[in-house]
Amino acid sequence: MTATLRQCLLAEVLGTAFLLIFGTGAVVVDEQTHAIGHGGVAAAFGLIVLIIIQGLGHISGAHVNPAVTIGFWAAGRFPGRRVVPYVLAQLVGAALGSGAVWLLAAPGSSLGATLPAHSAWQAFGVELGLTFWLMLIILRVTCSYYEQGLLVGITISSTVALEALVGGPLSGASMNPARSLSPALFNGNFTAAWVYVAAPVAGVLLAVLADRLLDLKAPANIQPPQ
């Protein structure tokens, strides 16, 4: 049975909310207790992405990221009429998630904000590259030839965790406008906010182009692998 738009939007709100609660929540817990560490924060993001994909992916696709929604639309895999509702649902979910973190955080907490370690343009390059690779992996593992259930979630979540581990110290490894804008909304720090909107969108569009260049067309008389 196909999910209704209302069910899809609810799934996106819930998924994005819990991405922020457990992802940025891990940042805040480590900020206050130093009990998790950078590797633990990266693992938290990867784990919650895996859980969201496995729990909600069959309903809405578990985009939980405006850039991913735009990427699927640009790739011709998502209807244009649903882009704005999905993005709005993701922004609402992110705000709910950051609001929950804000209620539990100590005064002055960053709330898991993403900020450039050096220049805004370096952060732009890092975010563009990370989002490009994430979207390319998503497009490749979700194509009909290779989709393998749980392995899709594991591959995507592993990519998120790896990129957070490596790119986090440089840019915050956001790859997601909703994930960055929501903490900024609550802590009032919009430093280089444009980076975390423009770079992910540019990254997914480049990934769509690369995916098309990599696409292998099977000859008409040969069936694709099952």
Automatic annotation (TrEMBL):
Keywords: Membrane, Transmembrane, Transmembrane helix, Transport
UniProt membrane topology term: Multi-pass membrane protein
Family annotation (SUPFAM superfamilies): Aquaporin-like (SSF81338)
Keyword Transport tagged: yes
Lineage: superkingdom: Bacteria
Any one annotated GO CC term: membrane
Principal place of residence: membrane
One matching Pfam family: MIP
Compartmental location: Membrane
Record GO terms (molecular function): channel activity
This protein's name: Aquaporin
